[in-house]
Protein: Sarcalumenin
Amino acid sequence: TGAEPTTSEFTVIMHGPKLKTIEGIVMAADSARSFSPLEKFGQNFLEKLIGIEVPHKLLERVTFVDTPGIIENRKQQERGYPFNDVCQWFIDRADLIFVVFDPTKLDVGLELEMLFRQLKGRESQIRIILNKADSLATQELMRVYGALFWSLAPLINVTEPPRVYVSSFWPHEYHPDTHKDLFLKEEISLLEDLNQVIENRMENKIAFIRQHAIRVRIHALLVDRYLQTYKDKMTFFSDGELVFRDIVEDPDKFFIFKSILAKTNVSKFDLPNREAYKDFFGINPITSFKLLSQQCSYMGGCFLDKIEKAITRELPDLLGSIGLGKKP
Structure:
């Protein structure tokens, strides 16, 4: 609420019988709260994690996480913990992501660019909030609204931009001589949007699992193709490291990605970045993988067939059963 960033913690707002603050170390130690995986980010981070229990009906259905503000002139290591990795952990579990802007601070720098890169593929879950709108005159507000879209356009590369809510989201009266009716409607729209997401949570979760399964399938096919190419190129006298480096440096020479598009129902827009596989195989040696054809058993079937069945039949059927009002 101030001119400077006023929170440096990840604050989790959740339901509880009475107003109560819980330390991050306690939250991570309590397996019932599902925050224990956060221990992997270290004690420095846990000191920056805080939970607040509030006896509010809305919180029976949803939990809010308030992340620290973006500080563009600050290096990530100065925070003392991996900020982007922690954000990614929460992003992966979020149903809705609000990106809140102050009209006096619309600068887009490296930290915000990195955050939007992490949000790629989740554009449908993003909502933009232009807060403190009643602190501006009408003409100035229009100018700021336009500047916000101008700044965000290169970061959100989708045909339909995210919804932008313009209001002053606090319990006090709006400033006089401002668009009170508009601000109130925007506030109501935001709550309706939030409620809709809560109502559709099951459908959204299944759709996301299916989307993730498609990515897993593509990744499995690509690794399999890299491995098959490596085995084909290896001879008794070959240097395995040199052979594989040649494949990773120029996968197009060996038709790695094109062969996936040609043989399977994979969209070229779903293919991951070629450069990402240099890093991937730097951590995971190609020799540690088995071909997909070798990962089949008489009783268990094939891994890839199971994923295919989930994508094409099981998950769509599950979505359909919810649409018909059946309990899945």
Observations:
- The longest strand covers residues 10-15.
- Residues 207-324 form one domain.
